[in-house]
Write a structure and sequence with these properties.
The protein is an alpha/beta fold. It is built from 13 helices and 29 strands. A motif ('HIGH' region) lies at residues 34-44.
C-alpha cells in the first residue's frame, strides 16, 4: 500500500518557492541556534526537529550554533547539556559554531559602521535611552550623542573594548531612524560593556554584541540560507535585513529570516528564567528532574527520542500560537513504549496473598510473554509460590457485581498462573487487612491446555512471589502544575499552581527478572503504567521512575 503523501507545511513551501526561483539546492543550509543559558525544553525540541528535519529532507547541512553573547548567564554546563540533548534526539550537526567565534569579525564590522556614520557611541544611562525611544504612536528623540564625530566614536569604542570604561557607561548604537514605526529600528543597541569572564573567550573581550547584531551576521558568516525563529522575532526581521545590508554587498548570498509560532504545552512552563527559579529554590532537584519539561528531564523520566520526534511531527508548524495539551505528548510515549517495552509484574501497594492449599516450601517457574506487540520479544520465567503480593485495590472484602477483581467467594485468575478463590482475611488491631487467604485450582494453570485452565473468570490480577520479590524505590511522577497555563495569571505567581502530588515515593515489590536492570531500561508494569530505571539506581537499591500511566487519568482527576 502506497504511503500517504504529507502536505507541505508553510516553512517547506517557502523553501520550495525559493528553489523554484533563484535558490539552488546546494545553497540550502540551516542552523539551530540555542543560547547556553539553561537546559533545552520541549519547545526547543520542536525547533530542533524542524531545522534538522529540513536538513534531512533536503540533504542540507545544519549547524549547531551557540548564541553565547551574554557571559552573565551562560555556562559550559549548558553547552554540554545542549549537545547531549541534540545527539540523543538522533541528530548530527555539520559544524559546531559559536557566536563568540565571530567576535573579531563583528567588532571589525562595527568599526566600519562607525566610520560610515551608521553607528555611534551613546553615553547616556539605559533609562534615558529607553525614555527617548518614544512609544508606538509617538516618535523617539535623538540622543545628544548621536552626532559625535567618527574619531570620538572610534576612540570610545576602543576604550570600551579594552575595558577602560565602566559597565553601563557607554553603549554602541546603530544610527537608523528615531521616528521609525518599528521601534526596534530606533537606533538599537549593538554592544554593551560587560567586565565578565566568558566561558570560551575568558577575559579577551570586555564588550559583547547584542542578539540582533550577532545573530544575523552569524547566519551570514555561515552561509545559512533560511533562519527560522519564533513569532516574537517577526518585528526583528526588518532590523535583521538592515544589518545584513550594512555588512554585505549586492552580490553576496544573504540569509532569509522567517518565523513560526511557538507551541505551548499545557500544565507546563518553558521560560528558562522560571525553570532556573524552580531549580535554585529546590522545588525540583535539578534541571533533569523528571517533572521538568526539559529534554534532559523527559529523558530521565523515560521518554524516548522517537516519542518526542513523533510529538513534534504531530503538532507540526503553524503561524499562530496555541496550547497543545500535554496528554498528546503522553499519548506519543505510550504508543512508542507499547511496541517496545517488555511487560513485567510489579506491585506498588502490596497486601499479602496466601494460597492455603499450595504446598509450603514449594515453588514453580511459569512462562510469561515479554511483549504481545513484539513477536520477537520472547518469554521469561517468573517464580510462583504459596505467598504472593497483590495490589491493595485488587481486593475488597465485600463488593458489588461490577467489581471484577478478588473478593470473598469469587474467582479471579492470577496472570500467567492459576485461578484462585477468596476465602478469608486476617486483620490487625486497627481493622486493616494484612493477609488475604485463598485457595487455588491446581488444574487451572495458564497455557496447560486443561479443561480447568479454559474456564472463564472475569478478572485477571498481576502479582509477585513474596519469597522472590525485589524491593525497589518507585517514584510516581505526575504533572508539575495543576492548571493548564500556570504563568498566564498576571495576578498570581506561577508557583501558586504547583501540583502538591507531582511526586510520590513508595516502596514496591518487583518480579526477580528486574534484579539486574541498568539505568535507562524501560518496562511496562502490567496494569500500572510505563516505568524506567533512574540514573540513581544501583543493583543494591534499584530506583524506578513512572514515565506515564497506562491510560490518561488526568481528566478524571479534574472532573473533565
Amino acid at each position: 500500500m502506497a504511503e500517504e503523501k504529507r502536505s507541505l507545511n508553510f516553512i517547506e513551501q517557502i523553501i520550495e518557492e525559493d528553489l523554484n526561483n533563484d535558490y539552488k539546492k546546494e545553497d540550502l543550509q540551516f542552523r539551530f541556534p540555542p543560547e547556553p543559558n539553561g537546559y533545552l525544553h520541549i519547545g526547543h525540541a520542536s525547533s530542533i526537529c524542524l531545522n534538522f528535519g529540513l536538513g534531512e529532507k533536503y540533504n542540507a547541512p545544519v549547524n549547531l550554533r551557540f548564541d553565547d553573547t551574554n557571559p552573565i548567564k551562560e555556562e559550559q554546563e549548558y553547552v554540554d547539556a545542549i549537545k547531549r540533548d541534540v545527539e540523543w534526539l538522533g541528530f548530527k550537526w555539520a559544524k559546531e559554531c559559536y557566536a563568540s567565534d565571530y567576535f573579531q569579525q563583528l567588532y571589525d564590522w562595527a568599526v566600519s559602521m562607525i566610520k560610515s556614520g551608521d553607528a555611534y557611541v551613546d553615553s547616556q544611562p539605559s533609562e534615558a535611552i529607553a525614555e527617548q525611544k518614544g512609544t508606538p504612536t509617538q516618535p523617539g528623540k535623538n540622543s545628544p550623542y548621536r552626532d559625535r564625530s567618527v574619531e570620538e566614536n572610534l576612540e570610545l569604542f576602543q576604550k570600551m573594548k579594552d575595558g577602560e570604561t565602566k559597565e553601563g557607561e557607554h553603549v554602541l548604537r546603530a544610527k537608523i531612524d528615531m521616528a521609525a514605526k518599528n521601534m526596534l529600528m530606533r537606533d538599537p543597541v549593538m554592544y554593551r560593556t560587560l567586565h565578565r569572564k566568558h566561558h570560551r573567550t575568558g577575559n579577551d573581550w570586555m564588550i559583547y554584541p547584542m542578539y540582533d547584531w550577532a545573530h544575523g551576521q552569524s547566519d551570514f558568516i555561515e552561509s545559512v540560507s533560511h533562519s527560522f525563529c519564533t513569532l516574537e522575532f517577526l518585528p526583528h526581521r526588518e532590523l535583521y535585513n538592515w544589518f545584513l545590508e550594512k555588512v554585505s554587498s549586492s552580490e553576496d548570498f544573504k540569509p532569509k529570516q522567517r518565523e513560526f509560532a511557538r507551541r505551548n504545552l499545557s500544565h507546563t512552563i518553558v521560560s528558562k528564567r522560571k525553570l532556573l527559579h524552580l531549580v535554585e529554590k529546590g522545588i525540583v532537584k535539578s534541571w533533569d528532574d523528571p517533572r521538568m519539561p526539559t529534554i534532559s528531564g523527559l529523558r530521565r523520566r523515560g521518554y524516548t527520542p522517537g516519542s518526542i520526534r513523533k510529538f513534534a511531527e504531530t503538532i507540526g508548524i503553524a503561524k499562530r500560537e496555541n496550547i497543545i495539551d500535554v496528554s498528546l505528548l503522553e499519548f506519543c510515549i505510550r504508543e512508542d513504549l507499547n511496541k517496545t517495552a517488555p511487560r513485567v509484574m510489579a506491585v506498588l501497594d502490596p497486601v499479602k496473598l496466601v494460597i492455603t492449599n499450595y504446598p509450603e516450601g514449594e515453588e514453580e517457574w511459569l512462562e510469561a510473554e515479554n511483549n504481545p506487540e513484539d513477536e520477537t520479544a520472547g518469554s521469561r520465567q517468573v517464580p510462583f509460590s504459596r505467598e504472593l503480593y497483590i495490589e491493595q485495590e485488587d481486593f475488597k472484602e465485600e463488593a458489588n457485581r461490577k467489581f471484577f477483581r478478588l473478593t470473598l467467594g469469587k474467582e479471579v485468575r492470577l496472570k500467567n498462573a492459576y485461578i484462585i478463590k477468596g476465602e478469608s482475611v486476617v486483620k490487625n488491631d486497627a481493622g486493616e487487612i494484612v493477609e488475604i487467604h485463598c485457595t487455588y485450582d491446581p488444574q487451572s494453570r495458564s497455557g496447560s491446555g486443561t479443561e480447568e485452565s479454559m474456564r472463564k473468570v472475569k478478572g485477571t490480577l498481576h502479582w509477585v512471589s513474596a519469597k522472590h520479590a525485589v524491593k525497589a524505590e518507585v517514584r510516581l511522577y505526575d504533572r508539575l502544575f495543576n492548571v493548564e497555563s500556570p504563568d498566564a495569571d498576571k495576578d498570581k505567581d506561577f508557583l501558586d499552581f504547583l501540583n502538591p502530588e507531582s511526586l510520590e515515593t513508595i516502596t514496591a515489590y518487583l518480579e526477580p527478572s528486574l534484579s539486574d536492570v541498568e539505568p535507562g531500561d524501560r518496562f511496562q508494569f502490567q496494569r500500572l503504567g510505563y516505568f524506567n530505571v533512574d540514573k540513581e539506581s544501583t543493583k543494591e537499591a534499584p530506583v524506578f521512575n513512572r514515565t506515564v500511566t497506562l491510560r490518561d487519568s488526568w481528566g478524571g482527576k479534574n472532573g473533565n
